[in-house]
Design brief:
Low-confidence stretches: 1-5
Order of helices and strands: EEEEEE
Strand content: over 45%
CATH architecture: Beta Barrel
Number of strands: 6
Structural class: mainly beta
Number of domains: 1
Distance between the termini: 19 Å
CATH topology: Thrombin, subunit H
Largest sheet: 6 strands, antiparallel, barrel
């Protein structure tokens, strides 16, 4: 039996859930432990196609390895939101 070890990066499929809907997307996520506050900080980009939400909203990011709450922020020129969170990552 093998158990998934938390990684520092994840590129692949994910599901985003919010009060405004659910989307199947591709994500590129990264993370690192920050010794200043003693927490793991993760962040990345959500593939285009997430509609009806805006910066500052909370979403739940689900991958095959787990789930975590994150906050959406700036949208890049290609329509991809930035997402970030602290604590156990969804990958």
């Amino acid at each position: 039996m093998s158990e998934h070890e938390p990684q520092h990066l994840y590129d692949g499929p994910a599901r985003l859930d919010s009060e405004h809907g659910t989307w199947e997307v591709e994500v590129a996520l990264r993370g690192a432990f920050q010794p200043i506050d003693g927490r793991f900080h993760w962040y990345g980009r959500v593939g285009a196609g997430v509609e009806g939400v805006r910066s500052g909203q909370t979403v739940t990011v689900h991958t095959a390895h787990g789930e975590a709450e994150g906050r959406l922020s700036d949208v890049d020129p290609w329509g991809r939101f930035r997402v970030s969170g602290t604590g156990r990552p969804p990958f």
